[in-house]
Structure formats: C-alpha cells, structure tokens
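REVIEWER CHECKLIST
Item 1: Sequence provided? yes
Item 2: Single chain? yes
Item 3: Sequence as submitted:
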Amino acid sequence: MPGITHPDRKDVIKILEIYKSFELITMAPVFTELVWRRRFSRAGEFQLTTNFTPDKLDIFEQGNIIYKRNVDEAAFIESRKVTQSIDGELRLAVRGRFLPSLLDRRIVSFEGNFPLNNTIAFLWNQNFGAQAAPGRQMSPDVRIIPFPSFGQAIIHAEYRRRNAYDVITSLLQEHNVGMWGRYNFDTRTIDISFFAPVESEVTFSKEFANIIEQDYRDDTEPYRNVVYVDDQYIHNDHIHTGFERREIAISAPNPNHWSIGLRQAAIDALNENRSVRTLSSVVNPFSRQFEYLKDWNIGSVVLSQSRMIGFSGKEVITEITEYYDEAGMNLEVKLGAV
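Item 4: Structure as written out by the authors:
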C-alpha cells in the first residue's frame, strides 16, 4: 500500500495482545507485516505475517483472540499458513475476522414488520440468545447491546433459512447503521453493539494537505432496478422504463405461493446490485488538522472533496485499513454516500 509512513512503530507493536478465553497468552507478538481492516457495517479482518517458529503455532492458535488496544477491537484467529521461500525461510501468515463475524455461525428464519432494532433483537434472541434452543445459544458469553430505534422500519420482511450474518449486515448497510464488537474484559463477554454515523467537521481534500493519493470510482455496470421473480416484475420506489430500466431475474424463495418473502427477496437483489460510487484515499498520518481516532474514526461523516474531478459531498467512512511494516504505518480510507 502506498503512502507516507508513521514515524514510530514501537507504540504500534505494544498495542497487540493475544488471548484465549480472556487469559493473556502474550503481549506484543512479533510481526513483520500487519493489515488491520476496520469496517462500518460489516466485520473487519486482519492479516499478520511473521517469521515461523514452532511456538508461534500455539500463540496464533485458531480460535484465539488478537486484540488491538488503541481501537479497542478484537478478531478471531481463523486461518494459518506456513510457506517456505526458495532460500528456505519459513513464514507464517495468520488471518481472521473481527468479533461480529460470529453471526455467520447461525441460520435464521424470520417474518414480521418491525423497526430495525426490534428485528435484530428478535433475530438474536431466537437464534443466539435465551430463546434459542440450548445447543444454539451463545449467551451469556456473547451479548447484544440494546440500542435505540434509528427511525427505520423493516416492512414485510421474511427470511427462510438464511445466514444470520448476511441478513443482519444487509439490513445495517441498507439503513446506514454501523456494527461494533468489543472484547469486554470487565464482564468477560463479547459484546456486539450498533451505532449511527457520527457527524464531524473533518474535510478530506488535497487542498487540506491530508490526502496523499485518491481514487474515485463511479460504476453503473452492476446496477439493476427491476427484479423478475415468480412471473412478476418488482420495482424499487420508482417505475423505470426504456433505457433507464435494468432487469435482473432471481428464484422465488417459496415457489409454492406468493408471500411477503418474495418482495423481500427482490429488495435484497436490488440492494446487492446498486450502482457503485467509492472514493478511496491514502491519508497523511502527519496531518495535525484532523487526527485519526481523535477527529475522525470509522463511521464518521466527513466532507470529501476533489477539485480535479469536481466532486464534493458528505461521506461516511465505511472502511479504514491500517497497514504496518518495518517502515511504520499507512492509512487507507474508503468513503460511502450518506
């Protein structure tokens, strides 16, 4: 990843810790490269590369937790790979996803018409919490933190045998809500909470000298606005005709009868086939006008500007990638429309 590097790597090394069942295994694990990718509505991911020694297989055991102190985030270790170079050097690559990824361990079914917070609470209680069958419960070790209504309603939602993570993250993305997982040392629980974008006064722009590189992508190739399902055409909020009409066909979730799930399946298909507009920026970590983690963070609403392409608009920070190597730290930020 290109960009300016952070001057002090020692502090970065000190903020990593490895845990197993809240018991500390090691502090400051040695690494040569670290990618810590934070996301707004989906689980982030990490990749750590280090020189291989046999004891590191125990340190980076699958299921252990890697915790990053400065952002209070943690991830499950899920994958390990040992490679040998042509000169015989052994390297260990460790990968995993942030704590909310545990939502993909359940299949859910749901039918109802509730606000977003009630829908997620219902999905949780019925499939992870106290109302789930004993073998399916994750509580009390995992908790969902109650959150206020964000003002959106889920109209006629129906899911049949769907992955819980796919359902919940799709709802969060549709309604512009963030998700955060905390490794709670006080209660010895994994806490999953939700939050709305946070307004800020930050501006990302070359003219503010806080952007090193900037990539803008505007793509309508995947965009669809009409769904053909079960011999019906289902639109979104607008009727599209002529050149503006873009159709996609999907299979009916229940071929035996027309149900509210049919419309929900169409809505999901439209959400998955939106036009793409992203602005990816390599941020200058030396910038003192707007400081990372102090003035802006994941989920912050910032003003993004590019005079060269005539673009200016409020954007939500949807992804932050922290990249560390021997030289220091780089930051890459992705923004999405509010």
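Item 5: Key structural point noted by reviewer: The CA atoms of residues 47 and 95 lie 4 Å apart.
Item 6: Recommendation: ____
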